[in-house]
User: Fold these one by one.
Assistant:
Number 1:
Amino acid sequence: MGLLDSALGMLGGMNQGNNGSTDSKSMLIQAAIGMLSNNQSGGGLQSLINTFHQAGLADIVQSWVGTGQNLPISAAQIQQALGGGQLQQLADAAGISHEGAASHLAEFLPGIIDHLTPHGQVPEAGNINPADVLQQFSSLFGK
C-alpha cells in the first residue's frame, strides 16, 4: 500500500488552501482510487466493472473501458449501480452526502476508468498505479 499512500498524500497536498467543494472532490477521488486499487474483499476495478454490468449499465461502462467515446452517466445511474453501501462508504470518506457523491462520481469516474484501461484492456489485479491516476486528475484541483 506504500505507493497508494504516497499518491494519496500527493493529492492531499494539492488540495490545501482550496475551497470545500474541491476538498470534497479530492477526498472522493482518493476514496474511489482506493476502491479501484483494492482487490481484497472483492474490490478493485474488475469488480466495479462487473457491478455496472449487473446493474444493466454494460454499454456505458464498456465505453469507458474501450477506446472510443466515453458515454456519460447520471448520478441516478451511479446510485443504481453502486447501491447504498458502496456509495455511502465513498460519501462518508469524502464527508459529503450520498447524492453529492453520486453527482461527483458521474462527473469523473468515466475518465478515471478510461485512463485505467488503455487500449481497451482492464489491467490485472494489483497493477493500478495510483500516482499515475492522481497525476492525470491533478488539474481538477488547480495544482
Note: Residues 75-94 form the longest helix (20 residues).
Number 2:
Amino acid sequence: MGYQVYEDPDHPSRWAGYAVPAECDWVDCRAAIHRGLNNKCEDHGDYVLMLDGQQIGYDRFDDEPDAEEVWVEQAGCGLYFCEPHRSRTGEHGSVQPKPDSLEWEAHLLTDASWAPWREEHPDLVNAMRARAPQIAEASR
C-alpha cells in the first residue's frame, strides 16, 4: 500500500497522503503543506512536568520546587503541521483539524482519474460542490 492518497483513519471525512495539499492544522497558520506522514504528529517522546505522580502545566514550574521534568512517551494527535508547529507537541491538544483544501476538493471534482470515486460517492460530491460553487461549475 502506498501513502500517496488515503482516507485519514484518525479523522473521518479527511484525506491524507503526500499528494494531498493542505494547510497546517495549527490555528491561524496558513502554511502550505501536504498530509504526508512526515508532517503528521505521531507517537513521540516529550518532557512533562510531574508533581507527586501527576502531570502539571509548566505555568506552575516556578511555584512548585518539588516538581521535576520527566521524559515520557506520548501518543501523537494525528494532525498535520508545518515544521515549526509540528515540534510544539505539548500544545497540540487544543488544535482542531482543518477541512480539506479547496485545491484538493477541486482535484477530486475535476480529475478524470477520480470519476469512479465521484460516481460511488454522490453525497460527498454534492457537499463539495456546495462548499465551492466555482469548482462545481468547472466539474460539471
Note: Strands lie at 6-7, 15-23, 32-35, 44-51, 54-56, 68-74.
